[in-house]
Amino acid sequence: MHIAIIAGSNRRNAASTGILRHIKRKLSAKGIRLSFTDLGTVRLPLFSPDADAVPPETARLIASVDQADGLVLGTPEYHGSISGSLKNALDYLDNVHVAGKPVLAVSLAGERLGVSSLNHLQAIVRNLHGILSPDWISVGDGQHVFDRDGISQDPAIAEHIDQAVEQFVGLAGKLRAGSFA
């Protein structure tokens, strides 16, 4: 199994990216092949449907998503929506890259809860014909409960992240095998 992870923050030491690095370690420990795109270090040009060519860094992102059996998309919440860098990256993708693939949505907000950004991210995934994992990760006041490795210091949040990742892996495995029993 191959999972593509896209960290949608361009902020240095972003808590949302930390959570994704933690998820990456959990998936790697299961022997899952991974690609990790950190939009804080991989700078994609602004998407334009009129562009004549796809830039190399964008081609790598598209290839990783295209080859993946599932996606983990993470974003901070900015003004009630997903980050501009993640939206820009997703604009480069088309239905052929995402259709039928399970997607785990991860949102982290500096306020009470990252529900608005999560709703926007889920709408984009549905428009790309991805299959949303039944559970998701949405954390409010997140920068205060995660250590530098993206591990929650709140046992309830840590357990929820673990359960969401397990559900996602189970869904990805079933979709990959064509089995829903």
Automatic annotation (TrEMBL):
GO terms for cellular component: cytosol. One of its GO terms (molecular function) is oxidoreductase activity. Gene3D superfamilies: 3.40.50.360. InterPro entries: Flavoprotein-like_sf, FMN_Rdtase-like_dom, NAD(P)H-dep_reductase. Residues 1-141 form the NADPH-dependent FMN reductase-like domain. It comes from the Bacteria. Pfam families: FMN_red (PF03358). Belongs to the azoreductase type 2 family. This is Putative flavoprotein.
